[in-house]
Specification:
- The complex is a heterodimer of chains A (155) and B (263).
- Helices cover 54% and strands 13% of the residues of chain A.
- Chain A is an alpha+beta fold.
- Chain A has one domain (9-145): Roll (Diaminopimelate Epimerase, Chain A, domain 1), CATH 3.10.310.
- Chain A has a three-stranded mixed sheet, with helices on both faces.
- The radius of gyration of chain A is 19 Å and the shape is elongated.
- Chain A starts with 8 loop residues before the first helix and ends with a helix.
- In chain A, 30% of the residues are buried.
- With 263 residues, chain B is of the alpha/beta class.
- Chain B is 50% helix and 10% strand.
- Chain B has six helices and five strands; from the N terminus they run H-E-H-E-H-E-E-H-H-H-E.
- Chain B is rod-shaped and about 140 Å long.
- The termini of chain B are far apart.
- The chains are: A alpha+beta (155), B alpha/beta (263).
- At the A-B interface, helix 2, helix 3, strand 3, helix 4 and helix 5 of A face strand 5 of B.
Chain lengths: 155, 263
């Protein structure tokens, strides 16, 4: 969402491709970006919370889609960026990790190149989630391999 | 002083000299009273060998001659001959033996070495000289095991018979297969050939490695393109948010300038 056209059209389409690639890799999750100018006292975290919970991004959105949303809010006025994630993503992306991933794009954001910054953040999140997925898969496999107790025998 | 003049040897002198050289050994050999070939293959003048042993040995030697065509004679002289044993043994063998391979064990009472061995024949090629020496050595070893003089002679004869039989088989094998028993020699040209092929093998190996690398790369790429599926999680609603509990993920990217403070 870029109502004030803070991102150029070319850059926006480029970013859209990146976002689509991300959503192809992680079909359970969705990326949303809101670039805006906020009043001085408004925090991006608060805005992200309200947007994600009470403002549907498109008509007919399912609850699952919203629970799996990563919402980036970039405040160009107060020069701050925030990330709000749905409940589905909560176990896999902690606040600390999210903050570190955002910090990687600090220089790009400072120079006003939000698209480049977003690319860096998306790459970081993609790598992190891939690793998390591998770990989860390995745990699931080891659980499947582990011998199961014979409940009938215990009775 | 008048120098002496010596006439060069005439052909007549040379002929006389040659006859002298040729006839002397014959004259010596003529002194050896050599009988006809004994049927028993054993010529024991001194009657050293007991008749029982002589009969058994004779049977064995005659069988060997008839089956394998190898003649082996045992000669025990009465006393020390005037001619050396090696020469007399050659003389005996030439007269008696008609087989392609022959052997002779000869001795006399008080012979220091115990016995003298001779083996050879037209059936033993020059290349088999080492094999022949080995056969003689085997016969010696067979005789060394015995204590008595008679048994030493018999042992040497039987040992020589076995060794010559084995020798004949070896020669036959070598005739059938020229490479039999040959030691493989390290061929330098083979190394050159290998060096020539090494570059080919290297290229093949490199090609194989690149192929494997490409396959691995493709597998990695395909795996990377594969979508990730996370498991469903049970969550608890926080801060009244239906879809998200809010996060403390924030970045301030305000430019921080160094203020030049002046006191």
């Amino acid at each position: 969402m870029d109502r004030e056209r803070l991102l150029g059209d070319k850059k926006k389409s480029f970013l859209n491709k990146e976002i689509k690639a991300f959503e192809k890799k992680f079909p359970q999750f969705r990326i949303a970006l809101h670039v805006t100018r906020l009043p001085k006292d408004l925090d991006v975290r608060m805005l992200g919370y309200w947007l994600l919970n009470f403002c549907p991004f498109a008509e007919g959105e399912s609850a699952e889609m919203r629970e799996g949303t990563l919402l980036f809010v970039i405040d160009c006025m107060n020069r701050q960026a925030g990330l709000t994630v749905g409940y589905r993503l909560d176990p896999f992306l902690s606040d600390d990790k999210g903050t570190r991933l955002l910090a990687e794009a600090r220089e790009d954001f400072q120079s006003g190149d939000y698209v480049a910054g977003m690319r860096v953040i998306l790459a970081g999140i993609r790598g992190h989630l891939s690793r998390q997925c591998a770990v989860v898969e390995e745990i699931a496999k080891s659980y499947l391999r582990a011998p199961k107790p014979d409940l009938k025998a215990s009775r | 002083m008048k120098p002496e003049f010596k006439a060069p040897p005439s052909p007549a002198h040379a002929l006389i000299g040659l006859l002298f050289v040729l006839l002397i050994p014959n004259a010596l050999y003529s002194k050896v009273n050599l009988p006809e070939v004994p049927d028993s293959m054993i010529f024991d003048v001194a009657d050293l060998i007991p008749p029982r042993h002589e009969a058994a040995l004779s049977l064995q030697l005659r069988e060997l001659e008839s089956k394998e065509n190898i003649s082996i004679y045992l000669v025990y002289l009465e006393g020390e001959p005037k001619i050396r044993l090696d020469k007399i043994s050659l003389y005996i063998v030439e007269r008696w033996s008609s087989a392609p391979i022959y052997g002779l064990v000869i001795s006399y009472p008080g012979y220091a070495d115990g016995f003298y061995l001779l083996a050879g024949g037209s059936g033993v090629p020059k290349k088999a000289h080492q094999l022949l020496k080995r056969a003689l050595r085997k016969a010696e070893v067979a005789a060394e095991a015995e204590r008595e003089e008679v048994m030493k002679l018999i042992g040497a004869t039987t040992g020589l018979a076995e060794a010559l039989t084995a020798l004949k088989k070896e020669i036959k094998k070598q005739k059938e297969n020229p490479d039999y028993g040959k030691i493989e020699v390290y061929d330098v040209s083979l190394v050159r050939k290998l060096r020539f092929f090494q570059s080919k093998f290297l290229l093949m190996g490199l090609g194989g490695f690149l192929f494997l690398a490409l396959i691995t790369f493709l597998i990695v790429r395909i795996r990377a393109r594969r979508s990730c599926q996370f498991p469903e999680t049970n969550y608890r609603i926080r801060f009244g948010g239906k879809y998200s509990g809010g996060n403390n993920i924030r970045l301030s990217f305000k430019k921080r300038f160094k203020s030049e403070m002046t006191e």
